[in-house]
Amino acid sequence: MHPCRVLFICTGNSARSILSEATLNHLGKGRFEAFSAGSQPTGRVNPYAIEELKALGIATEGLSSKSWDRFTGAGAPPLDIVITVCDNAANETCPVLFGDFVKSHWGLPDPAAAQGAGAAIAAFRRAHTLILYRITALLKLPVETMGRDELKQALDHIGSITDEEADA
């Protein structure tokens, strides 16, 4: 069986989805293969995302802000799970991707919206802490043997985990 392929999507593909992709690839080696994309990619990875990943020893080589188009056409890797990470609470429009995969939403405030270096560093650390918590929960799931409905329910539950719960 191939690794479980997960695509993290947001609008700009410069921060949250990049953090998620790199973290799942780092922690889920062999079992998971993660990708990220955006509906309106910024064209560059946020430097604070790179700093946050490097601080935890997570590889950043090959990370790029890219369009979701590369996951919809011929030759695109087959996906098992697609997770949106935009922030509905901030009225961000989450991209919608159609296909034969399990979809879930793991909303996160956009750390790139923080103003000033100190606030940005803190915002990226907070966002990544929640991402780490959620990915750790994903890694505990027996995704290889779960049915689609059961997997969807488990992923949605993981996506409902808040900052406070992750910090506890």
Automatic annotation (TrEMBL):
It is an enzyme of class 1 (oxidoreductase). Pfam families: LMWPc. It comes from the Bacteria. Its EC number is 1.20.4.4. Keywords: Arsenical resistance, Oxidoreductase. GO terms for molecular function: arsenate reductase (thioredoxin) activity. Residues 4-141 form the Phosphotyrosine protein phosphatase I domain. This is Arsenate reductase.
